[in-house]
Write a structure and sequence with these properties.
Elements (H helix, E strand, L loop, with lengths): L2 E4 L2 E4 L11 E6 L1 E4 L2 E4 L3 E3 L5 E2 L2 E8 L5 E7 L3 E5 L2 E4 L3 E5 L4 E4 L5 E5 L10 E5 L10 H4 L2 E6 L5 E5 L17 E5 L38 E6 L2 E6 L5 E3 L10 E2 L13 E6 L6 E6 L8 E7 L17 E4 L6 E7 L2 E6 L2 E9 L3 E9 L9 E4 L2 E6 L2 E5 L3 E3 L5 H7 L9 E5 L4 E6 L9 E6 L4 E6 L8 E3 L8 E3 L7 E2 L1 E4 L10 E7 L12 E7 L2 E4 L8 E8 L7 E8 L6 E7 L1 E10 L3 E4 L2 E7 L4
């Protein structure tokens, strides 16, 4: 029989069965669609060789008026500013205890027990010791007088940390009587726990079925970060607003906004914070009312214009606040062109600057769609794309559901218990938005779903090959999009440039796409015999004539059987055709490769196929 061209429909479609999606693509990893054809995604390499501590769930790059580039990172344990390839620790200080901390060591152990009445620390916090003296042996003053991470806090008055030396029998002192301890803000949760019932705060807190108010320590640590001019405002979800003054230098920590000079009625607990694009107001979403310390989850407050510290409404300023009228809580907010979108648990509210006397207007623009997680919305292509518990949406004045060919696959695989970790990302280089999510029983991000908004096609993938990402930013001030990694083993993590090169920081990664089953018309009654394959593939940044992409012909006789490999063909830049001997009732084609030096883009496949009987 003559050769036949097989043109597969663009996009991954998993809404039906493999067989029902004939002449379509059914599975992929690290492959996107461009102009209707599948291609390997771009690679990544380290933005900096320096590391940071903790799981980063927020990246915010910005440029000062002097042209300095800063990237603010919020992790579940630290707040950093990245400048010149170096991470500077700007994590705020919670408290300072002077001349009160003592220590105890055990012979043969590096674990030190510190005693400090009502220290307020939790496991994972950081404390900096100073003015301590040697315990008498290997636990010297130099070993004690540094920053330590608290490994446990068994009582309200004691905690432990691991020293850089192992104690011996001579370490019988207590560190002296003038030891100071400076405690950084409490670390947050790295695993999401719903804010009612078991599992919130420490063991035994509250009664069975009791509700815990949203607070800094019982929420997944999600930072919101924005710049206020050259400076930074940052708030951990459920906590206060912090302020980093760029002019004070990179070695200066962020401090409470409420402690700044001239501060008046600054919110002390917020769900999210943002700077407005008009008149430069600082806005708090879900915050405490004036005179209260408890969060009102529907209250929106804003500071006076051009001031981050004046939140007291008067007849002569533009500070104020509004309690939203529908829903029970604010999930998240996103600044877009000429408006701020606020997602509650029942819909979307548009917040627009209108000037005196109301300053901002609040209008409900959608009822029903919400956010699956606070970071599940992004702005791209002059539109807003977001994910809720039931699907994907686009907002451009009104909210419309996006037809998704992998919706059931994503929602049925999503770990709902950790859905608060879902985050959206923009890659304008490829006209894409992505949602990264934890699947199955995994408690951390391990998969993604990708949408090309110009071509209206979907793809899917995993975070294997060191592709675990917990935060992403398009980073328009930088050359490439950047993302944060997570290394559970060491807790030392990196930021990465994306769409740079073709490898995993110089190493190989695997990309593949696999078609749905196809057979001979009209109904697959006969077996088929594939005797020739003529590949059509474009190599990107070809390094040599030995570069290769593997075409695998798979087959099965019935839809519920497993696919088996019938033939594997390695295709190089100089390949012509391959004679094959593949026989089955249904066939599928898989295109894959693992490389770090080159990419590829698949075209149309030609196959020589003939009937081969019914048995």
């Amino acid at each position: 029989m003559p050769l036949a061209k097989y043109i597969f429909k663009p996009g991954i479609n998993k809404e039906g069965t493999n067989y029902s999606n004939e002449y379509g693509w059914f599975d992929a990893d690290k492959v996107r669609f461009r102009k209707g054809k599948p291609e390997r995604i771009g690679g990544w390499d380290k933005f900096s060789d320096d590391t940071f501590i903790g799981t980063c769930r927020k990246l915010y790059p910005y440029k000062s008026i002097d042209g300095d580039q800063f990237i603010i990172l919020g992790t579940h344990q630290k707040l950093y500013v990245l400048n010149g390839g170096v991470y500077y620790d700007i994590n705020p200080i919670r408290s300072t205890d002077l001349n009160v901390t003592t220590f105890a060591a055990t012979d043969g152990s590096a674990v030190i027990t510190a005693t400090d009445t009502a220290h307020g620390a939790v496991t994972g916090d950081f404390v900096t010791i100073s003015n301590a003296v040697s315990l008498g042996g290997l636990i010297t003053a130099a070993v004690l007088n540094t920053e330590h991470q608290i490994t446990s806090a068994p009582t309200a008055n004691t905690y432990t940390f691991t020293a850089s030396a192992t104690a011996n029998s001579s370490d019988s002192g207590n560190g002296g009587s003038a030891t100071d301890a400076v405690y950084q803000i409490n670390s947050g949760l790295d695993v999401y726990v719903r804010s009612t019932g078991w599992g919130v705060n420490t063991w035994g807190t509250g009664t069975f079925g009791s509700k815990e108010d949203l607070s800094l320590t019982n929420q997944l640590r999600l930072w919101t970060i924005d710049n206020f001019g050259d400076d930074t405002i940052a708030a951990p979800r459920g906590g206060p607003i912090y302020f980093w003054d760029e002019s004070d230098g990179l070695s200066t920590r962020a401090t409470l906004l409420s402690a700044e000079s001239g501060a008046s009625d600054v919110p002390t607990a917020v769900i999210q914070v943002m700077t407005s694009d008009v008149d430069k107001h600082c806005i708090a979403f879900g915050c405490n009312p004036i005179g209260s310390s408890t969060i009102d989850p529907l209250l929106v407050r804003f500071s006076d214009r051009e001031s981050a510290v004046d939140w007291t409404p008067t007849a002569t300023n533009q500070a104020g606040g509004v309690q939203l009228s529908s829903g029970s809580e604010i999930i998240g907010a996103l600044r877009t062109r000429q408006e701020v979108l606020i997602w509650t648990d029942v819909g979307i509210v548009s917040m627009r600057f209108v000037g005196e006397p109301f300053v901002f207007s609040f209008t409900e623009v959608a009822e029903g769609p919400s956010l699956i997680a606070p970071n599940a919305a992004v702005s791209a292509n002059n539109r807003v794309y977001f994910m809720d518990n039931g699907g994907f949406y686009i907002y451009s004045g009104s909210a419309e559901k996006i037809s998704c060919t992998v919706l059931d696959y994503v929602l049925s695989d999503l770990n709902q218990d950790q859905s608060f970790k879902v985050f959206a990302a923009v890659n304008n280089i490829a006209n894409e938005v992505m949602w990264f999510y934890p699947s199955g029983t995994n408690t951390e991000i391990d998969k993604y779903v990708l949408y090309n908004y110009l071509e209206d096609v979907w793809s899917i993938g995993t975070t294997e090959d060191n592709f675990v990402r917990t935060a992403w930013d398009q980073a328009s001030i930088l050359e490439y999009p950047i993302a944060a990694s997570k290394n559970d083993a060491s807790n030392l993590n990196y930021t990465y440039n994306h769409e740079k090169g073709h490898g995993d920081d110089g190493s190989d990664f695997t990309a593949y796409i696999e078609s749905s089953d196809f057979d001979l018309e009209p109904d697959g009654e006969k077996f088929i015999f594939i005797s020739k394959l003529i590949p059509d593939v474009q190599f990107r940044d070809q390094q040599s004539t030995s570069d290769s992409v593997t075409f695998t012909i798979k087959g099965r006789d019935y839809p519920l059987q497993d696919l088996s490999t019938l033939q594997t063909i390695d295709v190089t830049p100089n390949s012509t055709f391959s004679n094959t001997r593949a026989r089955s009732r249904q066939a599928a084609v898989r295109i894959s490769n693992s490389s770090s030096d080159y990419g590829w883009r698949a075209g149309d496949i030609r196959l020589e196929i003939r009937p081969d009987g019914k048995r």
